[in-house]
């Protein structure tokens, strides 16, 4: 069974950092195109990052220079390092096997507030 489990969210002050994890099972992360998406309150899903099988990474303009996607092949886990967080980054964060987020996990909440 394919499963994605996100973790690492929480409450952080503006300017702070968090690292999200996405533990995958039922498939191999390093052989897949993987994405991070988020959904802010009252808004639709927003694509944030992509990591392709070869390791190439891509970022939405809204997070470029602040967020970094990586993976640990041995742990079959995808990560999202988030730095310089802003209040507008408050959202539920999901990893997904598709850019639109249709195959996303249950998500982890990130709240950026002073």
Structure description:
This protein has strands at residues 3-7, 10-12, 18-25, 34-39, 45-51, 57-59, 67-72, 77-82, 91-96, 108-112. It has 114 residues and is mainly beta. It is globular and about 40 Å long.
From the helix content, strand content and strand pairing, which structural class follows? mainly beta
Could you spell the SSE succession in H and E letters? EEEEEEEEEE
- Report strand order across the widest sheet: 2-10-9-4-5-6
Distance between the termini: 40 Å
Shape: globular
Radius of gyration: 13 Å
Main pleated-sheet profile: 6 strands, mixed
Report mean pLDDT, rounded to a whole number. 96
Q: How many H/I helices?
A: 0
- Runs in which pLDDT lies below 50 for 5 or more consecutive residues are none
DSSP, total strands: 10
Measured as a percent range, the helix fraction is under 10%
> Strand fraction band?
over 45%
